[in-house]
């Protein structure tokens, strides 16, 4: 246990988050996502796990992980079927977490399911959560931390 570090963030996850650079993607996926197979194609090459609901995992990750403010799609969600404007309850909860972490309203863009799989395959790392609600899949692009002073 470390002071100031959310206990959901295990050593493997912290190492991956630290190794990521600006513009790298992190995928948070639900229990139905083909995580093991897709993670083999990721930069990290293996699956990470955090045993909590997706919004809880997002809250923990975003406590140490900056979102990329230079792109429009730094936070994205798997869209519900063929309806990009439908917001599932898990999406609304994650949106509130993202907004709180960034201190402002932040766009959470929809991505069609198969396009989301493609983005996940190119991601740096994939964290499978214990989220059981459908479409509880999110992509978070890493930003930068500005110098102090």
Automatic annotation (TrEMBL):
Keywords from the UniProt entry: Isomerase
GO MF annotations in UniProt: D-ribose pyranase activity; fucose binding; L-fucose mutarotase activity
Catalytic activity: alpha-L-fucose = beta-L-fucose; beta-D-ribopyranose = beta-D-ribofuranose
Ribonucleoprotein found in the keyword field: no
InterPro entries: RbsD-like_sf, RbsD/FucU_mutarotase, RbsD_FucU
GO biological process: fucose metabolic process
A Pfam family: RbsD_FucU
Key word Isomerase present: yes
Protein name: Ribose ABC transporter
